[in-house]
Each structure stands twice: as C-alpha cells, then as structure tokens.
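Weekend entry, working from home. Most of the wet-lab plans are on hold until the incubator is repaired, so I used the time to fold the two sequences that have been sitting in the queue since the last round of cloning. Logging both here for the record. First:
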Amino acid sequence: MNILFVCTGNTCRSPMAEVIALSLIENTGISISSAGLSAWEGSTASPNAVECVKNLGLSLESHHARTLTQNMLDETDLVLAMTKAHKEYILKVFSKVSDKTYTISEYAGEDSDISDPYGLDYAAYNKCAKDLTRMLESASVKWISIKNQKQQMFKGV
C-alpha cells in the first residue's frame, strides 16, 4: 500500500504527516511519501517543522520538497490532502484519482482542515503536529487493517 500526503509547498504539513505516519506504521510494509501542489523542488522542511518533529523523536533533516505529479498519483493507492481546497485542486487538475483522494480529516472521520503553520511561530507548528498525530492514529488503524485484509485475500492464491 502506497500513501501520499499533499499540501501546498511540501515544507510543513505534508512532511510532518509523512514522518508521523511512518512512526505509526513501522515494519508494516506500507509506503508513505509527500508532495506539494506548488513546491519549490528541493526545498528543505521549514525550521519550525524540523524542530517540532524533532521534539517527537522524529526527523525531517533529509526532507526535500517535491511537486505533485500525475506519475506520483498513478503509483499511489491513497492520497490524503491537508485541506478541502487541496483535494478539490487535485480532483480538478489530475485524472483518475477521485476514488482514492480524501482530506486527511475526512479519512480520519473528522471534518476540518489542517491549518497551515507556514511563517507562524512554533506553537502553530506544534498544534499542527498534534492535529496530524490525532488524525493519523485513527487513519493508521485503517491502513493496517486494509493491508492485512489484502494479505489474507492473497494467502490462499
């Protein structure tokens, strides 16, 4: 299973979601990545994002921003956007993704956007990380269940 997180610049929310999600699904074989709708290719994660996840015992030191492409979407089983606007843009611009694209809160059974902390203080990044962690804890249970169901289906084949 391949999961892709999408935000605007791929320097704050989606990379934070990526490393938080990876920490929740260690050793499951689920692949997690991130991209931005208007990323500056190769940009590093914002300093507050780096510091925020460092305080969670995680790292964004090697992160480099990527711009979302159709090829990335074709190779992904699940696309999780940070906001309703991100989701709408993805559905409008890219093809064949409507059946696998959700907002992260929608997928987690909530109805809110993940606020953009870009340019704000550490407290805004910390709130973002807490919101992401809460939603990803719920989402990761689904991912693992789906992966296990698929493994069971193919066990007897």
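Second, folded right after the first finished:
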Amino acid sequence: MRVENFSRRRLKWILAIGGVSLAFGILLGIFQGDLMEFRSWSTDSFSKSAIGHKGFAELLRGLDIPLIVSTHASGSKAGTSGLLIIAEPTLTDTASLYTGLFDRMLRQSHTRIIVLPKWRGIPLVGSSMWVEAMVLMNKEAASSVLEALGIEARVVRITDSTVTLNWDRNSYGVAPQLLAPQLMAGDQVEPLIACDEGTLLGAVKSGHTNYAGVTVILSDPDLIANHGLARGDNALLAVRIVDHLRNDGGVVLDETIHGFSLRRSIWRSFFEYPLILVLLQVFLLAGVILWTASIRFGSPIRYDRRIASGKGYLIQNTASLLRHGAHHRYLIGRYFNSSIRHVAQNLHLSGWATTGDTIARLDAIGKRRGVGVDLGGLTASVRELEAKQDVTASEAVSAAWRIHKWRKGMTDGT
C-alpha cells in the first residue's frame, strides 16, 4: 500500500495559504505606519480629547502644509530645513527616560517649537479616546522643560478670570484668546507674543542655550489644543506661527516624546532607492531561472524498481548477506540464547540468563511436558557449533530447526 504524507490537493492548499500569508506579512511591514492608527486620550496628536492635538494636525494637513506625525527619529527628519514641534513633553524625575530623547532631537534639528506642558487628563471609564476631567499640572512640569533647554525663566499662571490681559501688538496680526493662560517671564526669552503679565510665545536669545539654531517656546498649549483651537482666532494664529517658522519647509510633529515609537521597516526600504535596484535584479534573475527551467516541467520519468516491496525480499536479502559472510555459528548461538530467554520469560522463571541452572530447570519442565527435544543435548550441540570454525548451512539449519521445535513445544505445547 502506498502512503503519502500530503495529497496533491492538500499540498496546493498549503502552498496557497503560505503564499498569501507571506504576501500579507510583507505588505504589513511596508504599510504598517499607514495601517496602524494609535488611539489616545492624552496630550498628543492622536488624541481627540479636549487636551489632544489631533485638531491642530488635521488643520495643518487641510491647509496643504507638509506634515509628518513622527514616531521615529523626529530630529533627523526635521534636519536643517524642516520645523520640529515638540508639544508638551514630560521631563520630570518620574519620566526622566525622555530627557536624553529630548536632547537628541534638539541637537539634530535646526528650527523647533517647544510647547510647555499644562494639563493632565483623567481618562473616561470605558473609553480610550476621551477624558473625564482636566487637571492642572504643577508648575514644575513646565519649569523642567525650561531647565532642559538651559533657560532661566519662571512660569506665570493667571488664575483670576476677572483679569483683563492687554496683548501687545505682534507680527502675526492676531491676538490669542485664552482662559487662565500660562505665561513665562525671563530676560533670556525674546517676546514674540506677550502681554503685561508675561510672554506667551518667545524666541530663545542666542547664547542662552546649548542648542544651535532657532528655538521658540509656546508657554500655553491651549493655543493648539482641541478645546482651545476653535476659540477666537487661535487657529489662525497657530497656523501663522507655524507657517512663518517653517520657511516653506515641512513640519515634523514629534510623538516619540509621548511614548509612541514605530521604527522604520526593512521591507519598506527595499521599495526605495537604492535598494529598489537590488530588488529589481532579484526579480529579473528569478524570472530567467523560471524561464530556463520551464522545459523540465511535466510528469517525472518512471524507472524500474531496484528493490522489491514486502517482507519476503528483506528476509531473502538478509539471509544472503549472512550466508555470504559465513556467520552461521554466531547466528545459531544468538538464536539459542534468545529462545532460552523467551521461554524463561514465558514460564515466569526468575533467571533468564543461559546458565546451567536455568537450562536444567527448563530441561526438567520440558521432560514433564513431553517435549521431544533434549535441551541438554541441544545445548551441547549449539556450543559445539559455536566453537567450530567452518559451519555449513545444513548444520546451521538443522540446529535452528531443533531450537525452534523445542521453543514451540515449551510455549505452545507438544
């Protein structure tokens, strides 16, 4: 009977499923950044909550401003020609692991906007997109960002809603509208948008920071947050600030500082220059190989079987090998010892070794049962054949037949 591990139909199904899964894995590696949508309720551009920045990102995209929401190597993407926006980083002692990331992004970029943190959200129970309440953070959260920049400035918060703020005229032509604004005060920041209580948007003066290039600080994130973007002309002011600083370049909105990290895919790199040339060469080589091998397709050539099937052929072949090697005496001795052990085990004797005591006990049992073969004489004949150098096939067969007859008589009866 012919046994096959896989039928032809089952093999086709396995190859089809494997090919589809491989193609899906490659596509997922190429477009994972487009397929993966982060859900958040916090202070990031993936959040639709009141403290999120998704509305700000969509506003820039809607105005055809080149925007990258970056989850990897944000500083390198901005470089010397783009604008890097780092919104509400948390650099306190409890999250100091982001301090090195913050420093690296500032050193790799030339122009950047740093938005100081202000709010902490309490997520709505059962939701991953909305907040139940907004909690005002300590001033130390914003001060820690200023310290990381190497700037001596203090954070000022206007908590009295009855205070009327008189905003100075600015180059953007629009005044912000903020409730309980968070401002900053210090001589190392040049005011770009300010009032009599402090500065909302300021540029770090040269020589007061360790980072080259242009650094602009937005002290209150409500200007670009979802809940404040639609108030007054805040959206227009935010767009004008970004448009002025980017200088016709692109905008990189960093999200690695909020814990969103998605590294570049090696599969996607194969479809970009210069690796695309290598990929095309591989496809071309594979096509040539398939074309040259196409003449070999078809049913395989049938050959005559060199080895017959069945146990008879194996027994005959083994016998011929033993006869060719003249191993009759070894074979007889092993067959005799095996038979003694088999019969002793079958009769539940304590010892199975071919000792004189065991043979004597088996001989006595055989005489009581009327077995026609004398085990003592059979033992002597086998030992004689084992000591003999030239044992003929007829002698071996005769001894084997006597052993078999004794074994059958002892186990199956006479």
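Plan for Monday: verify the second prediction. The mean pLDDT is 82.
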